[in-house]
Automatic annotation (TrEMBL):
GO terms for biological process: maturation of 5.8S rRNA from tricistronic rRNA transcript (SSU-rRNA, 5.8S rRNA, LSU-rRNA); maturation of LSU-rRNA from tricistronic rRNA transcript (SSU-rRNA, 5.8S rRNA, LSU-rRNA). InterPro entries: URB1 (IPR039844). The lineage of its organism: Eukaryota, Metazoa, Ecdysozoa, Nematoda, Chromadorea. GO terms for cellular component: nucleolus. This is Nucleolar pre-ribosomal-associated protein 1 (inferred by orthology to a human protein). It comes from Anisakis simplex.
Length: 119
C-alpha cells in the first residue's frame, strides 16, 4: 500500500495501474471503499494495526485527491476512525491519545467540508 501512497494523484499512478504486472500498486478507489467498510460501526478492529499498515496515512493522503467523491470517502474514514478511537471499549495503546489529537487537529484545520488539502 505504501507505493500506492507515493504515486497517488499522479500521472504515474494511472500508468502503474494500467500495467497488469505491477503487484505493488492498489486501486485507491477500491482501498478507500474497503477502509470505509472496515470502519463501519461496530467494528472489531485493531487500532494499532490500522495505523501500522498505513491505512490512516492513506486516508490523510487521500484528502488531497482531485475527485471530490474520493476525498469525501477519506474524510469519512478519518471521522469513523476518530469515533472508533474515542470508544472506551477499544484497546488502549500508548499512542492512542496522540492519534486522537492529530485527527481532531486536522479536522479543526479544515475550513470547509470536503476541502482539498494540498500535499
Amino acid at each position: 500500500m505504501w507505493f500506492t501512497l507515493l504515486k497517488l494523484d499522479n500521472l504515474e499512478f494511472t500508468n502503474a495501474i494500467n500495467n497488469k504486472n505491477n503487484q505493488e500498486m492498489y486501486d485507491y478507489r477500491f482501498v478507500l471503499r474497503v477502509l470505509t467498510s472496515i470502519l463501519e460501526p461496530p467494528a472489531e478492529l485493531s487500532s494499532r494495526k490500522f495505523v501500522e499498515c498505513n491505512a490512516l496515512s492513506f486516508a490523510f493522503v487521500a484528502t488531497s485527491l482531485k475527485e471530490s467523491s474520493e476525498r469525501a470517502l477519506a474524510y469519512v474514514i478519518l471521522r469513523r476512525f476518530l469515533s472508533h478511537l474515542s470508544d472506551l471499549s477499544v484497546e488502549t495503546f500508548a499512542e492512542k491519545s496522540l492519534f486522537i489529537y492529530l485527527i481532531r487537529f486536522f479536522k479543526n484545520s479544515v475550513d470547509y467540508p470536503n476541502q482539498r488539502i494540498p500535499h
